[in-house]
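Quick note —
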Amino acid sequence: MRPLGDRQKALARQLLGRGPLRPAARLAWHALLHVETRLAALRRPPPGDVAGVTAIIKTFERPARCRALVASIRRAFPTLPTIIADDSRVTGDYPGAGVVRLPFDSGVGAGRQAALDRVETDFVLNLDDDFLFHAGTDLAGALALLNAHDRVDLIGGRVIDLPLRIVHDLRTETLNPTERAPRLPLGTKLGPLELVDKVPNFFLARTAAVRAVGWDPALKRLDHADFFTRARGRIATALWDKWSVLHWRDPFDTAYLAFRDDHAADRRLLGKRYRRA
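Predicted structure written out below.
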């Protein structure tokens, strides 16, 4: 399904997010999400060799969602090393994963970097805490492609928003202002891969390449475009559109969104960094 337009989003927020239909909409939305979660558990990724990969997850105030992600990983890849950076008020319990405990609300940049610092394998799989593995999360296939194409450093896939199964195409989005040229021409095809500027926060990469860019601990929310802006010219990023992960999207989680939408400080920092007005 295509993303909603701006007018559609505004109408949805008015009618469902803040209006009298909100309680019923919340119940229906969560019911659909739970159905999708059960279906995902039945449709596991294809098996394969994923030796040399470590998954890293940044989580904040969503222990149930993060546990669901870890469970979906374990169903498919029982021995995949998994590191979770948690800056929640109370650190969650995540069986089968190592946990890096951070001060409350340290932010996404600090969390991702802390998890990355503990990776000991040649490849790292970056994940958000509200993702779910499903039949399309062919990690072994992505690893095989990365090994087959040594000019590529990072392979991203599609993120499918549940419950409406909306897919966003980041190829149409721009980076922050930068004079760096891509290492390989954008749009270049290498087998099923397409060279792009930016992919979602769902990607498999060479650990050394990600470390060469790193995440800025000063950015608590808006780390995504900054990472890929600084990555341009340093690493080669590709999209494999047959590879995907599910995204448990919950617009009714107001407690979490109060933090997630508090990005004024990040915007000021990025405005200075990229000379925006």
